[in-house]
Structures are given as structure tokens and as C-alpha cells.
Amino acid sequence: MHAHPDIEALNHRIHLESAFVDQLQQETSRVIVGQHAMLERLLIGLLTKGHILLEGMPGLAKTLAIKTLAQAVEARFSRIQFTPDLLPADVIGTMIYNPAESKFFVRKGPIFANFVLADEINRAPAKVQSALLEAMQERQVTIGSETFYLEEPFLVLATQNPIEQEGTYPLPEAQMDRFLLKVKIGYPTKAEERDIVRRNLSDEQVTVRPVVSPATLLRARDVLQQVYMDEKIEQYLLDLVFATRTPADYGLRELAPLIRYGASPRASIALAQAARALAFLRRRGYVIPEDVRTIAPDVLRHRIGLSYEAEAENVDTEEIISRVLAKVEVP
After folding, report:
1. Measuring CA to CA, which residue among 190, 322, 175 is closest to residue 244?
2. How far apart are the first and last CA of the chain?
3. CATH fourth-level superfamily of 227-327
4. How many CB atoms lie within 10 A of CB 198?
């Protein structure tokens, strides 16, 4: 770990570089009511080159949120509705024969955008899911014999509907692990919902102005590397991840039979990156334990496997994570 930097100077620099965050939040809130946490998570994904899995009931403005964010950062948006008859070519594109010129040319699929909404990802077969995941991981796509790089920023937001599991293809654990965060969206408060109803009844059309350029976002990614993370904090986030693997070492022996497998090393990397990004979004040059605690559930909830015992006792991942957070000592 590098020596302690001049925190004040660093803080000042990060504060200036993160000024666009407030503009983005103001602009998006003209269209979206509430959902502050979701927008923050989307920005964390953008800043860390991570992708996001969103779980929430239909009608909670998931599509609207990412579309609005894309407009506010002047980026290309595309939406793919996943269905059981979807083919990989429908996502990445395909070779088409042109008889007039008697040659093939490439027709690029909807994956060629900055923000890709993969709606109801668990409705499409494994072949399609893996085509999407390959694009997410490699940030490139092969069509025929040609390889195309995807433009930065590139963020995939996949949604899952938590209620209907009939006829769906759940994502395998290894593929879930590819998502930086799994974000759960709850219902709005009554005051927010009243606001939503009023906005929908009024005739006023709100257009989102681009307030940030993709270049600014890419520069913010570089600046993010300078956010300072103390060794104590590093130790803390490793303890959180390790407590999901060997709970008994952390005085959580009762959790051991409930966990089939704990979070992978990808979780530690994701937790470090996301905590840093959160510090940046909250306009600080250094990570505090609260950053780690805030984002830990989103990083861990899709990376812990539950045993049959846990299911029998009605214990879910949320409960395991909150017990880990309550027990592991905060620096």
C-alpha cells in the first residue's frame, strides 16, 4: 500500500473532479422520482467498468432510469427484451448476404451501445445469456470472422423479475459472479408515488438534457484510481468476504451450516472498487468504513450460496449479510 497521501489536497481534487455527479443527479431527478440508490449504483457500474443486475417488480422505472441516465451522459442506449426464442445473433448481430454485391456484410446487434438494458435476462436460454456475458467480460464481439470492440463507456444492466420463475432460465452462479452488483429495488414511498402519479397525469413533457459527456466519465475513471483506501479498510473488506467463507473464524459458527459456498475473490475486488467509487460519488478522496458497509449487500447478495438448511429455515442471503456486517469488527 502506498504511503498516506496528502488527504486534503486529494480531497480537494476529487471534490472538483466529481462535480458532475450533482449535475447528473439533478438532471435525472427531473424525470425519475426517488430511486437515488439505484442511480448511484448505476454510476458505480459506469465508473468501475462493472455491470449490474437489477431485481425488482415490474413497473419500478428500471427502464426509465437507465434510459434517462443515458440521455444525461449523451450516450447511446439500447434495450433487448429477452424471450425464450431469442438467438445470440439477435443480441450481437449477424452476417447478412447482399446478392447485388454478392458478398456478406455485418449487421451489428443492439449490444453495440453504451448502455444496454437486458430486460428479463432469465427468460432467454443459456446460449443467449452466454453471448451477452462474453460481450460484458471481453468488451468485444465476434461476428463471422471479424472482431468488433464495444465502445466505452459500456454498461450492461440486466433485469430479473423476482416473482415469475415459471419457464425461466436462472443464471448459473459463475455467470452471476460476473455482475459487479446485484441491486434490489423496492417500492417507492407513498409521497414518492403520489409524485409519480401527478407527473404522469400532467401533460408536461420533460426532456433530459445531456449534462455530462462520455469523455468526462472516462476521465473520472482515471481519477478514481487516486481515491485513497487505508490498509485498515482493506483488511475490513477482506474480513467481510472471508466471514462468508469461514463464518466460524468470525464468531459466526451458527451461519456455517446455512452457507453452501461463500463469496469468491471477485467479490473482494468488486467490494474494493465499488467502495472507492462510492467515496468518489459522495465527493470524498478517501474511503470510509461506511462506504464499504453501504455497498456490501449489493456486492455480496448474488455471490453467496445457501444450503438446503437455510432454505428450510427461511434464511435468505440478506439476513446472512446483515449478520456478517453486525459481527465483523469495523475499523
Report:
1. 322
2. 17
3. Magnesium chelatase subunit I, C-Terminal domain (1.10.8.80)
4. 10
pLDDT digits 0-9 by tens, 302-330: 999 999 999 899 999 999 999 999 999 99
Bridge partner residues of 183 (DSSP): 54
pTM here is: 0.88
If you average pLDDT over each of 141-145, 183-187, 215-219, 269-273, which comes out highest?
A: 269-273
Domain with CATH 1.10.8.80 in the chain: 227-327
In this prediction, residue 228 carries a pLDDT of 93
Tell me the sheet residues that pair with 305. 261
- Its CATH class, for the domain covering 20-218, is alpha beta
Distance CA 291, CA 44 (A): 12
Q: Which residues make up the CATH 3.40.50.300 domain(s) of the chain?
A: 20-218
Q: Which pLDDT tens digit goes with each residue over 110-156? A: 999 999 999 988 888 888 988 898 899 899 998 888 899 999 899 99
Q: Which of 147-151, 176-180, 203-207 has the lowest mean pLDDT?
A: 203-207
